[in-house]
Amino acid sequence: MQQLSFIHVSDLHLDNFPPVKQENDEMAIRLHDAPYGALKNLLELCRQKSPQFIVYSGDIHEHGLLSLEARFCLTDFFNELKTLDIPFYYACGNHDHLGQNDSFFQNFENVFRFSENWSYFPYPPSKKEDTENETDRCAPLCSIYGVSHSTRKELKNFLKDFSCDAAAPFNIGVLHATVSSSDKIKNTDKHVVALCREKDFNSFPIDYWALGHIHEPAVIQESPFLAYAGAMQATRMSETGARGATLVTAEHFENKTEQKIHTEFFPLAPLETYSLSLTLAMDEELENTGQCLEYFLYAFKKEYAKFEKNPLCRTRIFNLYLEGQHDLYEELQEEGFIQNLKSKLEEIETDAKIFIKKIKCLIRPRFGYENAHKRDDLLGEVFRLLETLRQDPETFESILRKLDNDFKIKNEIELGFFAHGDKRSKKQLEKYRKTLLKACENICVNVLEPK
Ligand SMILES: [Mn+2]
């Protein structure tokens, strides 16, 4: 029986984070340091788990030439990996594409960076003396196939040019691409690169496809095994929750029928982002904004206590949504109340530093939303129309696609970043539908219902 164990990581995006506005110096420093911290935590994971090698599926840094800090940090990282005898197999993505830092990555003999055409490296890596004497060369345990991007926006499907002889007992493919089963996704869409379909992977004898580009960790299918490791560190507020590395182990792989691939996720990101809704219950008897503030503080602490606390996380940044119906809905939207609540929340002492990026008050006036569709006036007509839309996901999706590039409207109604082509799209569509319909209801009530 042979056993294989490797770490799959991706999308570190060193020197990124502009989408999160840096509210103050402390937050700015933590945002900047986060991906560097994730890299240090990866090294610690390597010391603990002793993987045989690492596969990296692209976007190690944001764009252009590596900063001096990134160079120093990566140099330390690769040198430490060398002392641990861990090779690093690296396919470039659309951000860190070939032609930007080529000579830097050639400095490390344990870094195997793929070229713009499909090729493979063996594990264990062949040593110089092996190539001089072919007969002494030991058979590789594993072949790692990969291809790198050479442009910021790759339109082609790399799998069209792929072939693989599967000479090694275990074969890995490393690819940075949007994998989608939906025909609605086009390779020219924003955020889509090197688009391919799930079925395109079926014809190759690859045991594990290590994918990058989509920042949400996901196992797309198990045969052949297709997995996104997700970003090692969140790069925007919408990438909520823990981020990290996937440890892959495979056993019995000489007999393919008994082959079993096991994956385990390890959180590494020192900074996590969250989106949290706090709802003011209808029957809460809160007479003034002071009592409302206490209520939301209590509600936040209660929700926060339920979080899974990853010990490597030092910073948690929240977008908060205040919901419910209350007579004080106008006062609760005032800047003074919001700022007061924000500073009280940021004073909470916990295992990690809490920052509140944004508080959006969505509290509505007391209004009989549930029965509005029974009214025989214009407002009732609008509510009936919204109800039909609620039950028609296809029409809704077509509306959402029209909004896709309208960031002004999307920001206004909190639709956030639209996820392309991955497994979460259905869940996300559902969330967007609820948000959009609620926003429509509110606008109509405010316009049509006299106070
Ligand atoms: Mn990418």
- Biggest sheet, strands in spatial order? 4-3-2-1-11-12
N/C terminus separation = 75 Å
- Mean pLDDT across all residues, rounded? 88
Overall CATH architecture of the largest domain: 4-Layer Sandwich
CA gyration radius, whole angstroms:
25 Å
Order of helices and strands: EHEHEHEEHEEEEEEEEHEHEHHHH
**How many E-type strands?**
15
What does the main sheet amount to?
A: 6 strands, mixed
Shape: globular
Number of domains: 3
- The oligomeric status of these chains comes to single chain
CATH homologous superfamily assignment of the largest domain: Metallo-dependent phosphatases
Class by SSE composition: alpha/beta
CATH topology of the largest domain: Purple Acid Phosphatase, chain A, domain 2
Note poorly predicted spans. 417-424
Work out the strand percent.
15-25%
Classified by CATH, the class of the largest domain is Alpha Beta
Number of helices: 10
Task: Walk me through the structure.
There is one protein chain. This protein is of the alpha/beta class. The protein has three domains: 3-269, 4-Layer Sandwich (Purple Acid Phosphatase, chain A, domain 2); 270-366; 368-451, no CATH class. The protein is built from ten helices and 15 strands. It has helices at residues 25-49, 68-83, 102-105, 128-132, 289-305, 335-346, 378-390, 393-403, 407-412, 425-448; strands spanning 3-9, 53-56, 88-90, 111-113, 119-123, 142-146, 170-176, 208-212, 218-222, 225-228, 244-251, 260-267, 271-280, 315-324, 353-361. The strands form three sheets. Strands 4-3-2-1-11-12 form a six-stranded mixed sheet, covered by helices on one side. It has a six-stranded mixed sheet with strand order 5-6-7-8-10-9, with no helix packed on it. Strands 13-14-15 form a three-stranded parallel sheet. Strand 3, helix 3 and strand 4 (111-113) form a beta-alpha-beta unit. It starts with a strand and ends with a helix. Mean pLDDT is 88; it is low at 417-424. Manganese (II) ion (MN) is lined by residues 58-59, 93-95, 176, 213.
